[in-house]
Write a structure and sequence with these properties.
Helix 3 packs antiparallel against helix 4 and helix 4 packs antiparallel against helix 5. The protein is α/β, with parallel strands linked by helices. The protein has an eight-stranded mixed β-sheet with strand order 1-2-4-3-5-6-7-8, sandwiched between helices. The protein has 13 helices and eight strands. The chain folds into two domains: about 120 residues, acylaminoacyl peptidase (de novo design (two linked rop proteins)); about 230 residues, Rossmann fold. Strand 6, helix 11 and strand 7 form a beta-alpha-beta unit.
């Protein structure tokens, strides 16, 4: 049986075969180099994609069990996370909801649950509602959090993809909240709740209000990448937000995207909308924003970023990386360190 969206799947795999940069995203979040190498060497079909990644997932699952038997809990959690990310990569290849996508996503969740149970921090599943639809999230709370970071992921992502970022902020003493919005991850897979600009505006307000109710005595910050960065900028105007850090935000709604990506978006968006980002042309920001940008970004328009940056009030900062492209993946560790320090400085002021 040919899966729905097979043409989009083939285009996606071809991009992965032809362009090494395609894999930077996944390696940043836990996919190992040897997995990527084997995929690029051997992938010829969807079956290859699943078989190769599943084999690597099974290897890391066995590693997790082995070190768990030695009571090495943090190491076991690490390997369970890699297992989960491999399963997440399998479900991601399917652009449309179906049995296989749902099953692989559930396996990803199950592996992350095993890892969650080994963590010192409190981690729990949470839910908000948008237009009477459940949006599913994760909340991680270290002891005595100094602030809360709301992670806003790009539209073609899920909250599980950004657990590595969650862990980084938690190590620096921040609680984290991350939700799958309309068209994303669990919210899309379980409820078939698709993305529109209106729904995303409602979603961002609900997430911020939820975070403020959970952590009323500490500052709230937003962290977003690409389209998630655009919504983090929009969300920074919310009166309960102390500031936002954004990486490669999409400032213009007219964005040049690869064909495979545009096709993927067509499955998760409603009302025939051809954009996943808010209109920031008339944006009036009221809280500080920290920008990160790659000077070789061929997706986000740098001149539009400069236009927005120049009209904002004084509480702003722009950090540029000469050799980085969209997402600035190769500098992500530095970006997370700088961002955490920036949040800490704000928390100290308060």
């Amino acid at each position: 049986m040919i899966p729905s969206g097979s043409s989009t799947i083939e285009k996606t795999m071809m991009v992965g075969f032809l362009f090494p940069d395609f894999w930077d995203r996944w390696m940043t979040h836990g996919i190992q180099k040897k997995t990527v190498y084997e995929l690029r060497q051997r992938i010829n079909s969807l079956e290859d994609w699943i078989t190769i990644i599943q084999k690597h997932a099974n290897d890391y699952d066995q590693l997790a069990k082995r070190v768990l038997n030695q009571y090495l809990f943090s190491e076991a959690a690490y390997y369970y996370r890699i297992t989960a990310m491999n399963m997440n990569l399998i479900q991601w290849i399917f652009p449309e909801i179906g049995y296989e996508k749902q099953q692989w996503y559930q396996r990803c969740k199950d592996m992350n649950q095993l890892a969650d149970e080994l963590e010192v921090d409190e981690i729990k599943n949470v839910i908000i509602q948008v237009e009477r639809n459940h949006c599913y999230g994760r909340m991680r709370v270290p002891e005595q959090p100094r602030g809360c970071v709301i992670i806003v992921s790009p539209i073609d992502s899920s909250k599980e993809e950004f657990i590595t970022f969650e862990e980084h902020f938690a190590r620096n003493g921040f609680a984290t909240i991350s939700f799958d919005g309309p068209g994303q991850g669990e919210t899309y897979i379980i409820n078939q709740f698709k993305s529109t600009l209106h729904r995303w505006g409602l979603f961002m307000n609900e997430v911020i209000d939820f975070a403020a109710s959970e952590f009323p005595r500490v500052p709230l910050h937003l962290f977003g990448i690409s389209s998630g960065g655009s919504w983090a900028i929009q969300g920074s105007s919310h009166p309960k937000v102390s500031g936002a850090a954004v990486v490669s935000p999409l400032i213009d709604q007219d964005i040049k995207m690869p064909d495979y990506y545009k096709e993927r978006l067509s499955y998760i968006t409603d009302n025939d909308e051809n954009t996943s980002v808010p209109n920031l042309q008339e944006f009036n920001q009221v809280s500080p924003i920290l920008f990160f940008s790659g000077m070789k970004d061929d997706i986000a328009k740098t001149d539009r970023l400069y236009d927005l940056y120049n009209k904002l009030p004084l509480e702003k900062q722009l950090i540029e990386y000469e050799d980085e492209k969209h997402y600035c993946f190769n500098r992500m560790s530095d970006i997370l360190d700088i961002t955490a320090d920036w949040y800490i400085q704000d928390a100290v002021k308060r």
